[in-house]
Amino acid sequence: MLRPWLELARISNLPTVWTNVTAAWLLAGGPWVDATLAWLLLAGSLLYTGGMILNDAADVKHDRDHKKDRPIPSDKVSPAAAWSVGLAMMAVGAALAIVQAQASPWITLALVAAILFYDLYHKPWPGAVWVMGTCRVLLYLMAASATQSNKNEGLGQTVLLLALTLGAYIVGLTMVARMEAKGAVTSRLRAFFAKALLYSPALVALGFWLARANWRLIPLLGDLTPLVPLPFILVFLGTVFYASRIMRQGGPAIGRAVGILLAGIAVVDALAVMQVSPALACGFVVLAPILRLWQRWIAAT
Fold first, then answer.
1. Which of 94, 127, 155 is the endpoint of a domain?
2. Would 182 be classed as within a structural domain?
């Protein structure tokens, strides 16, 4: 009885919501131990889960023809139950974010609107890939807006840049996957643009690293601390390169590659927090292969 709901929620991707929220909270100046962070994690989880359930509820006609094994077409979950549970989760998640975590109501409501818009229009409108990226950007900004410093001063440029970088990665992932799945001839410029978005977190991380590292520590003290971000950047580049190679095989390999890139969201968050907390960044990196194992039980797509 529980498994169909977990499949609807694509629960194997849920931990990437936790890494998004935690990274945004810390980068915005939030403390490690704070009840607000717990409320944000719960709110983000409900918004994500509700959105995924509504995604299947909105796609029921398409899935009856093309994905008959999904929980709703296979009659494991009724459409009415999916709509009711999904909308209830969205409402409760938004309420918790606004009332308990005191996140920006405008950003939170914009996130809800983006999720609902994507669920309803992602099939007929190819441009919905940008809405998908926007959902992650708004999730990031919602968490950041709940910190005391951002309530007083507004969202910082660093947080905004990292949120947009995460969104770019999501858009690039989706564009590359769609181009490979369709097998259609596409322009070199479009393909280059999609891959540039996919690799953008590494470029941004590299820029932050080169600009902020205290390189004098190495020759003066033999301190290798400035080199700490390098392994995280290399892990991310290796993940994207490996997934891209697999994706070129086509067919079922595309699904495996997308799963790797979805798990790689945790590595994107590792790049964001690596200079704030290398230990947490390590935890995010380790989470990625764990998510891949979880995807064998509950599919990520």
1. 155
2. no
Q: For 151-171, what is each residue's pLDDT tens digit?
A: 556 568 889 999 999 999 999
Q: Residue 176 in contact with residue 244, Cβ under 8 Å?
A: yes
Tokens of 158: 């660093």
Q: Which of 123, 155, 187 is the last residue of a domain?
A: 155
The alpha-carbon radius of gyration of the chain (Å, integer) is 19
pLDDT digits (tens, 9 = 90+) for 24-77: 999 998 998 899 999 999 999 999 999 999 999 998 888 887 788 899 888 899
Domain that holds residue 97: 1-155
Give me the residue label for tokens 């599919």: 299
Q: Is residue 242 one of the residues assigned to a domain?
A: yes
Instruction: Tell me: do 148 and 11 sit in the same domain.
Output: yes
Q: What is the DSSP string of the chain?
A: -HHHHHHHTTGGGHHHHHHHHHHHHHHTT--SS-HHHHHHHHHHHHHHHHHHHHHHHHTHHHHHHH-TTSTTTTTSS-HHHHHHHHHHHHHHHHHIIIIIS---HHHHHHHHHHHHHHHHHTTT-TTHHHHHHHHHHHHHHHHHHTSHHHHHH---HHHHHHHHHHHHHHHHHHHHHHHHHHT----HHHHHHHHHHHHHHHHHHHHHHHHH--TTHHHHH---GGGTHHHHHHHHHHHHHHHHHHHTT-THHHHHHHHHHHHTHHHHHHHHHTTT-HHHHHHHHHHHHHHHHHHTTS---
Q: What is the pTM (predicted TM-score) of this model?
A: 0.92
Question: How many domains are contained in the chain?
Answer: 2
